[in-house]
Fold this protein.
Amino acid sequence: MVKLYDEGVFLRNGDEVIPESRAAEAGIADAAEDARRGTIAYSILQAHNTSGDPDMLKIRFDAMASHDITFVGIIQTARASGMEKFPIPYVLTNCHNSLCAVGGTINEDDHVFGLSAAKKYGGIFVPPHIAVIHSFMRENFAGCGKMIIGSDSHTRYGALGTMAVGEGGGELAKQLLQDTYDVAYPGVVAIYLKGAPRPGVGPHDVALAIVRAVFAKGYVKNKVMEFVGPGIASMTTDYRNGVDVMTTETTCLSSIWATDEDTHAFLAEHGRGDEYRKLAPADVAYYDGCVEVDLSEVKPMIALPFHPSNAFTIDELNENLEDILHEVEVEAARIGGKKVNFSLLDKVVDGKLHVQQGVIAGCSGGNYDSVVQAARALKGANIGCGEFSLSVYPTSQPVALELTRRGYIYDLMEAGAIVRTAFCGPCFGAGDTPANNGLSIRHTTRNFPNREGSKPGNGQLSAVALMDARSIAATAAAGGVLTPATDLPDETWDEKCEYHFDSAPYKKRVYWGFGKEDLGSALVEGPNIKPWPAMEPLAQDILLKVCSKIMDPVTTTDELIPSGETSSYRSNPLGLAEFTLSRRDPEYVGRSKAVDAVEKRRVAGEDLAEADPALAGVFDALAAAGVEADSKATEYGSMVYAVKPGDGSAREQAASCQRVIGGLANIVSEYATKRYRSNVMNWGMLPFQMEGEPNFEVGDYVFVPGIRATLDGELTDIAAWAVRADGSVDQVKLAIADMTPEERAIVKAGCLINYNRQKNA
């Protein structure tokens, strides 16, 4: 089904994969370094690179997009940094928290702020319920050879010939300030598709098969996935969109696909046929690896809790129910401990797995083609009046309009499905949250343990499994008994879905303000919208208190700052920060705020050793160990240790919430994603790494002398000292992976806002 090559490959004529070790015998005379320039990714990246150096990219994007969890903070950051207007098309959607109010006006206040910002600075404002962010961008802005940046991790429009990148808010603020996205030229991995999907196999099945194969190995981490091969032609463009959006779950940097006439037809249907051009690799192109996918061998998949890579074919699961489900129960016990009563085996009745909920939603499941296929499977069916329920969220109003016009909404509703408006909520726990210990099957993008409303620390753990809309519909037709779509007759499925794009909902409801800025108009700020608090520049020496130590193999952004109802406080940095690590380490916030209170006293002129008696002992211990440390000049901050943090969302709040309550650094084994590490640096925190087990515990301290000067030089060997509660001192070897000159300057300035103020002064 999926094969990973253990070496680089040449692709000849777009359809012949030749391992590098066999290049000579295959008659390939091109050097790998030369043939690297033959990829689609290379041409697009260099066309947007302003550095003049093909190896160190400084990218300017063609457009950008944010949703209502992120756009207030981005605009506040850019305003504070000197932004005058939006220099490129900037789309503000309201697809995340529109139905997630925790009380009061705070959610709608953010929407009103967004509209007022679009009018003031020249933006594009998409009201609530009109479109999911990625659907809107695919329908209106993606085009061949373009680059788009979004503040949502699933910013992926590769199937339309657009290289898109999901990053934290700081990187979008840089674009608003006409700065650049700086990154070393990434590796490019070929995703070679051959064959054709069998009837009933959908895009989520293909995507999950790829995620299963590559995630644990880090095969495409921070690389570009370039889809090539004859199998592309077997998929409609909307089908390709469904595969493409899930590439984020591989931890790749971006994606791009070869384009064809079907791509052209999609763009033309959306009124943008002139944005089509054929994208294909050169006659000979070199890739840093290759993932070969035989589409004809892909079967309906299910990704069990608690990660998209925990994937099996539904047949595999049904054949090994007890063993596989037991392993998930063991993992649940590790995550939730004694607080969680979690079971899956109790949902096996007469050898069949019964699920309680189905959801088809968001940027992946709500696509037109997927909803059509679900409607075809459910035409004339009866979901029943038992525990099982099904909700369907079309991804945009134009999609819902066409589904209604062609009768598919009728078929869904007549079968017992609930049809809702465009909303990302189910994906992050703000809509159709499953019951505690309930099993929900979802055509959405993530099933992390702290997502979809789960709160393991409070004893609440929902089980979410990812599946394609086709198999969800087949399961719904069976009353909730897990059923692969391939069990239905082949004639059920026809992937060639007729579609007419009607732009009336966008023309009548979307505010199209790019280039129409009114700088004299006022921003409308509700009482919960607060500016970023002031942050101090980095001192020469720093003392870090260990305020959390997380030894899990991976820490997601949903653990660093929970999704769901907490996101309602997204526009209040200090209010949102109260939830930092709340589902993973509830004591962290109190510890970090105590550190911050002492640091504020130091900034006001006090000696650290006098402000906190415990710190007097720390400095005495350092002196006894022969380490010079000035308690008056040393900056004091909190630190989180995690093995591999940052998998998941691009939300900058995962880093900013640490920072605004005193965070000064992370120490990790490695960072799960570039975007989280970038967020850490943009908020003025040091992205330390260390090898081996940490020799400190919560409550201990790590002293790092001369760090400000160190940032001007080599970062591979940074001397530090751990000070324990008993007064013992041990040396710690830290390092920081490569940082650009701008990233070093941002951290020294204390955050991106400070850096830009200094630059513009």
In short: The longest strand covers residues 542-550. The domain at 301-488 is CATH 3.30.499.10 (Aconitase; domain 3). The mean pLDDT is 93. DSSP finds 28 helices and 34 strands in the chain.
